[in-house]
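Design request, tokens follow.
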């Protein structure tokens, strides 16, 4: 039963990270990122980035560790904890890369 809870939690985690990164990108683009016009838009982009750092990054790194304490699939050793934290960082990195990678059309529109 714990494996099923862990698997469902991991699936929810992957979807949540993807939605949070997409939301971050959408909000930044709404306020003119990467070149926001005006002090207000620039401040809002920095505020969104601060919220991302304060909420999304800790959630991404430590949720797998918390999920393993809720449904212990792996033994609670120091090595397994480190591996779960590294997996969280990897998941966030892949989600950021998939959501922020440039398309070929984007490169041509920017004159690159």
């Amino acid at each position: 039963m714990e494996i099923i809870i862990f698997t469902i939690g991991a699936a929810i985690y992957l979807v949540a990270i993807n939605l949070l990164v997409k939301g971050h990108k959408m909000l930044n683009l709404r306020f003119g990122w990467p070149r926001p016009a005006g002090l207000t838009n620039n401040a809002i982009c920095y505020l969104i980035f601060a919220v991302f750092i304060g909420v999304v990054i800790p959630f991404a790194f430590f949720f797998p560790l918390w999920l393993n304490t809720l449904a212990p699939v792996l033994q609670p050793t120091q090595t397994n904890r480190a591996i779960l934290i590294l997996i969280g960082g990897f998941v966030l990195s892949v989600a950021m890369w998939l959501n922020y990678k440039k398309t070929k059309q984007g490169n041509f529109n920017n004159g690159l």
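Comment from the thread starter after seeing the answer: thanks! Helices lie at 2-30, 39-70, 78-100, 104-109.
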